[in-house]
Amino acid sequence: MGDPTLPRNAIVIGGTKGLGLAIAEKLAVDGNYKRVVACGRSKIDPSFSKRASLHEVELRHVDVTDRTWIHDFDVSGFDTVIYCAGFGKLKPFSEVPEDELYNLAQVNALSLTQLIRKCSLHLAGPNDFKFVAITSISSLVVSPLFAAYAAAKAFAHSYIESVNVELEMSGSKNLILEVIPGYIEATSFYGGPTKIEALGDYAIQIISAMKRGDRRIILDYEKTYRGVLDRYAKDPKSFGQESYNYKMERMKS
Ligand SMILES: NC(=O)c1ccc[n+]([C@@H]2O[C@H](COP(=O)([O-])OP(=O)(O)OC[C@H]3O[C@@H](n4cnc5c(N)ncnc54)[C@H](OP(=O)(O)O)[C@@H]3O)[C@@H](O)[C@H]2O)c1
């Protein structure tokens, strides 16, 4: 195993906003981390850069929409890789343009699998290597009006579950941590600005689970999602209809 006392280096794909930014910020002030790189297409909002801790976060321009992104993406020197990139828009399946369909699959699913493949030697190797990926509760339940997004997240969820078994059976201790959020308003996912103060607790939960070596965490499980998953398991049809009506109301407002 690698020396756990050595300073670590983290790269966060989708680290410019939302949960990824909150995680990057917490890692930057974590005594175990020497270098934190946040990747995305945009600059980090200047109001966050003023926060002392974010002076420690480097920014790297990365767009995972193009499937060739992975060719130039270098993970050497990093022992912590965190994939937070994702997007989705509420709309009927017939109104999702073909380009958006490809992008939904690429950003939420395929680019993650490309990255996991790129890290395969580290994941299977003897040194401590952390890989964290964010999927969604919509990968576990029916999700009308989010059909392509939910399907892409389900692809990612299933891929991680199977890869973890392969890693475990080959004797590796480096299992992938799958983070499963439900609805989180404070990120930029729904188009608003990231409210980073409201995301700190989630970032701490995720980093703690990563350090423990957990393989899955459902955010807000006891408070909300245990009940949601129970309702879905008991009556998927009613669950789907209620979800449809709720989202139709949200699209109107
Ligand atoms: N918020 C929720 O309610 C919710 C619920 C379930 C799951 N999730 C998942 O949680 C993860 C984090 O989302 P969030 O809520 O924190 O949303 P967010 O604030 O919008 O952050 C998404 C991040 O992904 C990056 N990204 C998107 N497209 C990209 C691309 N083509 N190339 C590179 N980076 C890209 C964005 O950076 P740039 O814009 O700078 O490229 C941003 O840093 C996502 O996987 C999302 O699907 C969120």
Description:
This is Ketoreductase domain-containing protein. Belongs to the short-chain dehydrogenases/reductases (SDR) family. InterPro entries: KR_dom (IPR057326), NAD(P)-bd_dom_sf (IPR036291), SDR_fam (IPR002347). Keywords: Oxidoreductase, Plasmid. This protein has 253 residues and is α/β, with parallel strands linked by helices. It has one domain (8-225): NAD(P)-binding Rossmann-like Domain (Rossmann fold), CATH 3.40.50. Helix content is 44%, strand content 14%. The protein contains 9 helices and 7 strands, in the order E-H-E-H-E-H-E-H-H-E-H-E-H-E-H-H. Strands 3-2-1-4-5-6-7 form a 7-stranded parallel sheet, with helices on both faces. Strand 2, helix 2 and strand 3 (57-61) form a beta-alpha-beta unit. NADP nicotinamide-adenine-dinucleotide phosphate is lined by residues 14-20, 40-42, 62-65, 84-88, 107, 134, 136, 181, 183-184, 187-189, 194.
Secondary structure topology:
Blueprint: E1 8-13, H1 18-28, E2 33-40, H2 46-49, E3 57-61, H3 69-72, E4 80-83, H4 98-118, H5 120-124, E5 130-134, H6 147-169, E6 176-180, H7 200-212, E7 216-218, H8 221-234, H9 236-252
Helix pairs in contact: 1-7, 4-6, 8-9
Bound molecules: NADP nicotinamide-adenine-dinucleotide phosphate.
The site of NADP nicotinamide-adenine-dinucleotide phosphate has 29 residues, from helix 1.
